[in-house]
Structures are given as C-alpha cells and as structure tokens.
UniProtKB/TrEMBL annotation:
Keywords: Folate biosynthesis, Magnesium, Metal-binding, Transferase
Organism encoding this protein: Undibacterium danionis
Obligatory cofactor(s): Mg(2+)
Keyword Metal-binding (UniProt): yes
Annotated gene: folP
Protein name, per record: Dihydropteroate synthase
EC number: 2.5.1.15
Pfam families assigned: Pterin_bind
Listed pathway(s): Cofactor biosynthesis; tetrahydrofolate biosynthesis; 7,8-dihydrofolate from 2-amino-4-hydroxy-6-hydroxymethyl-7,8-dihydropteridine diphosphate and 4-aminobenzoate: step 1/2
GO MF entries: dihydropteroate synthase activity
Signal peptide, first to last residue: none
Recorded superkingdom: Bacteria
Biological function: Catalyzes the condensation of para-aminobenzoate (pABA) with 6-hydroxymethyl-7,8-dihydropterin diphosphate (DHPt-PP) to form 7,8-dihydropteroate (H2Pte), the immediate precursor of folate derivatives.
Length: 287
C-alpha cells in the first residue's frame, strides 16, 4: 500500500483516492523550469532570472502542483555543469520562488546544491542519480524535503550509447528498492519518497515502452508513488516522428497513459494542456 501522504517540505499531498481505486487519484503536475545562462545580464531588458520567474508564475496560473527547477541539462550527451555555475543559476531562483505558494523542487545530484537549495527554501530534491552519493543522503536525512529517486543506467554523457538489460522492469525495481532502502536506513521517512523509472535515461524505446506498461507494477512492488517524466523526450519523437517543438500531443498521450497506470506525479513542460487532459480523463473516468 502507498503511504497515505507524500510529505514534501512545507507541503503534504494525499496519495490515496477516497474510494481506494488507484486509477481515480488525481496526479500531481510537476512543471519543468529550466534556468539557462543569463545572456542579458549586461544591460538587456530581462535577465534569465526574470524569465524563469515569469515562467513559474504562468505555470502557477495554469494549475501546477510542484515546480521543478533545473540548472544542468540532463539530455543524452550533456556534459556536467561546474558546481559554482549550478549554484549561481539555481539558488537565486529558489529564493525568488520560495514563497510562491507551491512546493519548489530542485533537480540536482550534487550534495552542495542540495544543501544550499534546502537552506534557500526548497521542498523537494529530484536526483536523476537516485541519491547515489552518501553525502547527498546525509544532507537529505538532515532535512524534511520530499525526494524523487530516479533510475538511470550510466550517466547523461554515455547513457544512450548502448542501453542493455536482461529484464528492464525487474532491474529498475531492484535498483530503486536498494536506493530507497539506503535512504530509509539513513533516517529518511518513507512518506518523503517518490520513485521514477527514468524514461530515456539509459533506455531504448522498447525499454521505455515496457516501463510505461509496468508503472503500476513498479508502484505496487515498492509501495511508493511513481513520478513519470516523458514530456517532449526522444521516445515521443521516435513514436511520432516529430521534432522536439512538436511533441506536445504525444507527450499528453504518454502522460495520460502513465496516469492510467496509477502514476502519482507527472513531470511536464506543458502544464496548462496536461491539467486539461487530466481533467477530461478524470471527468469521464469518474462517471
Ligand atoms: C531532470 N529530469 C529530466 N527528465 C527527468 C525525469 O524523467 N524524471 C525526473 N525525476 N527528472 C528528470
């Protein structure tokens, strides 16, 4: 059974529907807020911080539940960002948004960024490396933030070169179980954890499809809420043949598929459209 609530810093979200039918639970919408280098800081009209703040305001108007701030690209082939640059991009934005009324998640695997983000007011840490670092686990254990523990094979630089599994679902479950057990042993409460199969992180299209078909199994096995992120990813492009700027419809279909499999958090770029799609799906499903 899933924990009754997902505890996320200053916020608490119910994880179970009233009638206990898991497909009826409205998923939380996590909006993606990437902060890029400040190309206008020397005299331009808007800085990248201003752009990011107005993007966050738009997402709030559109019905977002959690805002996920990221400073480092996690695309296949992306190289790591130096620590000081990531801190410079992310931390001012956490301070700027901390009182926006929505939980602020920070997408990072660096313990130093986690620590500063928590001090600045972040409510959740989203770690694509699944809290592999013992320093990261120490920082987290000392806090009350919610966590997303994600599966990845290798690292963003190399992950799509030759993904390989004997049984992708079983291996992802085993990996997430081990990482969650480590976090629980270091003192993290179970109701602060969410898990993520890591679509596109060291997976072929076939692996991604198999994982999408098995979200409910993954959630039931680990008794933890699943976060699913497929928005605009290569897997959507591979299925639809569309370039990244034309993948919204495909991304909505994938989000609804994840929701029908019981996913509790959907990580998306297009918040307004996903909120509408979820509303329609629920209105029909509830009758
Ligand atoms: C940062 N990031 C990019 N894609 C992601 C995904 O699918 N899940 C999570 N948790 N984070 C992601």
């Amino acid at each position: 059974m899933l924990p009754t609530f997902f505890e996320c810093g200053r916020f608490r979200f119910p994880m179970k529907p009233v009638n206990n039918a898991s497909t009826m639970c409205k998923p939380l919408i996590m909006g993606i807020l990437n902060i890029t280098p400040d190309s206008f800081s020397d005299g331009g009209k808007f800085s990248s911080l201003d752009h990011a703040i107005s993007h966050a305001e738009q997402m709030i108007e559109d019905g977002v539940d959690i805002i996920d701030i990221g400073g480092e690209s996690t695309r296949p082939g992306a190289v790591a960002l130096p620590l000081d640059e990531e801190l410079k991009r992310v931390i001012p934005l956490v301070y700027a948004l901390r009182d926006c009324g929505k939980p602020i998640s920070v997408d990072t695997y660096k313990p130093e960024v986690m620590r500063e983000a928590i001090i600045a007011g972040a409510d959740m840490i989203n770690d694509i490396r699944g809290f592999a670092s013992s320093q990261a686990r120490e920082v987290i254990a000392d806090s009350d933030v919610g966590l997303c523990v994600m599966h990845m094979q290798q690292s963003p630089e190399t992950m799509q070169q030759r993904p390989s599994y004997a049984n992708v679902t079983a291996e992802v479950i085993a990996f997430l179980r081990e990482r969650c057990d480590q976090l629980l042993s270091s003192g993290v409460e179970k109701n602060r954890l969410s898990i993520d199969p890591g679509f596109g992180f060291g997976k072929t299209l076939e692996h991604n499809i198999e994982l999408l078909q098995h979200i409910r199994l993954i959630q039931d096995e680990l008794e933890l809420p699943v976060l699913a992120g497929m928005s605009r990813k290569t897997m959507i492009g591979a299925i639809t043949g569309k370039p990244v700027e034309r993948r919204m419809a495909g991304s909505l279909a994938a989000a609804l598929m994840a929701m029908s499999q019981g996913a509790r958090i959907l990580r998306v770029h297009d918040v307004a459209e996903t909120v509408d799609a979820v509303r329609v799906w629920q209105a029909v499903n509830a009758t």
